[in-house]
Amino acid sequence: MKGKINKETIFVSILTILAIACFPANPLVLSGAIDTPFYLPAFIIGWVIWAGGMVLVMAPIIQFPHQGGVPKGKSFTETTKVVDTGIYAVVRHPQYVGGIPSIFVTCILWYPHWLFAVLGVIGTAMIYLSIIEEDKKLVAKFGDEYAAYMKRVPGMNIFRGIWQVWRHPVSR
Prior knowledge:
The chain has helices at 7-21, 27-30, 40-67, 94-110, 114-142, 144-152, 158-167. The protein is mainly α. Helix 3 runs antiparallel to helix 4.
């Protein structure tokens, strides 16, 4: 139906607003709307966390074109096969997992304010719900292969994924 807003559009819109409101180059702080203290150790830790999160955010952009069967000239999102090696052997959604620390955790470290803590919790919950929807779409696209992958590899728990890979390395 034309003009109807679906659940995915609402989720993406809310996440976009939250990401902008909590982005490390924060518009609320830079515009002077919110004043926050500055703590150098938290700022440095924030940079380290941001960098680590961004490595995860970039994972599909780098890995999918090489291993996901992406047709030449197409977006990395147009994978034709399940990628379950590299970071994808550790966690199913590294881009989302990286987004949480690189946006929400870094923001609260750089700009300690209760509003960013609240927005970070909401943003993390929204990402979790987005992952559930993404998994449903990927099961519909890839079928049993993706369902089996879901049983092997955690969606967000990168620590559990590292432990599993360390305890049971798989040769490919």
